[in-house]
Amino acid sequence: MTDVVSDTKAQEVPVDEVLDDALIQQLMARAKDGGMKLAGEGGLLQQLTKKLLESALEGEITDHLGHENGERAEDGRRENYRNGHRGKTVTTEIGTVEIEVPRDRAGTFEPMMVKKRQKRLAGVDEMVLSLSAKGLTHGEISAHLAEVYGANVSKQTISTITDSVVAGMTEWQNRPLDAVYPVVFIDCVNVKIREGQVANRPVYMAVAVTAEGHRDILGLWVGDGGEGAKYWLQVLTEIKNRGAADVLMLVCDGLTGLPDAVNAVWPATIVQTCVVHLLRNSFKYCGRQDWEKIARGLKPVYTAPTEEVALERFVEFAEAWGKKYPAIVRLWESSWSEFVPFLRFDVEIRRIVCTTNAIESINARIRKAVRARGHFPTEQAALKCVYLAVMSLDPTGTGRRRWAIRWKPALQAFDITFDGRLSAARR
């Protein structure tokens, strides 16, 4: 039993080789005949967990002492031997379990299955982190564990569990990056932080596509005030200092001054404004009754085959709507130099870089996680919540495979368009 349960370095044994179907059926039948329920207090799962843990601990102390319980020494003397048990309450994924932990006379036994002063099995910590990543508050997590599993886990304990990710978050935030990224998407989402008074603070995020077509979240940064190009300059400089020497294209939401900040870090990078953001901002300057007409009028502009054709279509749009909505015309004129770069590329590249949807879906997950909290007491608490949310984005790996398939044609086009700068990163 000890070899199967407690040896974490051993090769994982298939479940079918450990469990016996006939034995399971026999246990279920006996539990049913005895009126024992499957889950809950005193249930079959709880009792099996108790027996499994106690059996593993007995195996561990046998290995530690070098002899079985009741086995006599050849000379009748031993330096160390069993010294009874002590009761312990352990919180597990199926609820609270009372177990008996064996002791030795010398006090040198260090159990591994349930360590000294350990009150929770690892699965409970993982469950708490998963629920926190989905946006549940500490009070809601505590109530959920009590209601569903009968486990009493305090809000302070839950806070301690979530604090355990801080070291990993710091390591992740400072990890080395790839030398070249074909595309980097940047955006920010506001969270409420209470420092003296509750105020919106931007959380900056950069999401890259690697040379293999995988998504890579480069980092998270909490800014001081509203989103600004000056702070983005600090973020991009940090990304470069971590090893990202070249970025082929950077897609953003059209923030004033951002192209200059990007080119100060990577002079050869093409800055592309998100077309979806341009359209959304355009709707702010017109009545709702005209949204559909404005969208139809602008579509020939951003779907034009060349920049020259796009300019012709924009002139037609300005003549039709400029008198009624001059602010929309000024918006597109001021963003024109950052809007048109993708028009020079093949359709595979256009389809990918004309929008920040790649990062908007992540922002939606973050907003869902932070909305339930209302506001955070500290900057670190907010960053911890956002980090847990982005780390739980793709638990099955399906998204990673989908990204690779989606980006394969675009990456081939990138390599041709950017004169081999991308293929140099693969070597």
From TrEMBL:
Matching InterPro entries: Transposase_mutator
Basic and acidic residues composition bias: residue spans: 61-82
Keyword Lipid biosynthesis part of the UniProt annotation: no
PROSITE patterns, sorted: TRANSPOSASE_MUTATOR
Pfam families: Transposase_mut (PF00872)
Keywords recorded for this protein, A-Z: DNA recombination, DNA-binding, Transposable element, Transposition
Region ranges (Disordered): 61-84
Role, per record: Required for the transposition of the insertion element.
Record PANTHER family: MUTATOR FAMILY TRANSPOSASE, TRANSPOSASE FOR INSERTION SEQUENCE ELEMENT IS1081
NCBIfam families on file: transpos_IS256
Similarity annotation: Belongs to the transposase mutator family.
UniProt name for this protein: Mutator family transposase
Taxonomic placement: Bacteria, Bacillati, Actinomycetota, Actinomycetes, Kitasatosporales
